[in-house]
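Q: Okay, next protein. This is Iron transporter from Kiloniella spongiae. I've checked the sequence twice, so it should be correct. Can you predict the 3D structure?
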Amino acid sequence: MFIQTEQTPNPATLKFLPGCPVLEGGTAFFEAKEAASNSPLALRLFEIEGVTGVFFGGDFITITKAEDKEWYILKPSILGTIMEHFTAGRPVITDASEAMSSHAEASDEDDDEIVSQIKELLDTRVRPAVAQDGGDIVFHGFENGIVYLHMQGACAGCPSSTATLKMGIENMLRHYIPEVSEVRASA
């Protein structure tokens, strides 16, 4: 097994491409070991000193490190853990219903027309681009003209995420949906 790595716009985050499917659908983001109880792989990755975040996409894994750690020290342990996990055929997620929050939210049938348009634009135009950088974006709500989004993976804590939200996503949504006046990051 050969695992490629890619830099992301966030210097504290690195994208790992194992060359095989990671998740069949949706994404999973773990910001702490305690939240990763349904992911044997995330639990093992959090055992590596300096790993502070684990994000799973369709064909990639994004790892976030502590500021005081260096990639050249962490990378061999991370690569070894990922390689051993996949070659042993272990599951990435044991209870997928808990992990796939981002796509579960996107399929609410009770959405009004504006929310449906926002979700459609996010899914078709924003998420693919954000996934290339090792992250994801989750719709959290639309209220009084304000769209609330949550950045995950490489995008969480990225120095350019505010610019992405304001100049990229906000401008696009305002262009296509006049009812949108602003985009804000939600916690």
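A: Here is a summary of the prediction. The beta strands are 4-7, 13-17, 28-30, 51-56, 61-65, 135-143, 146-153, 182-185. The chain has a mean pLDDT of 85.
Q: Noted. On to the next one.
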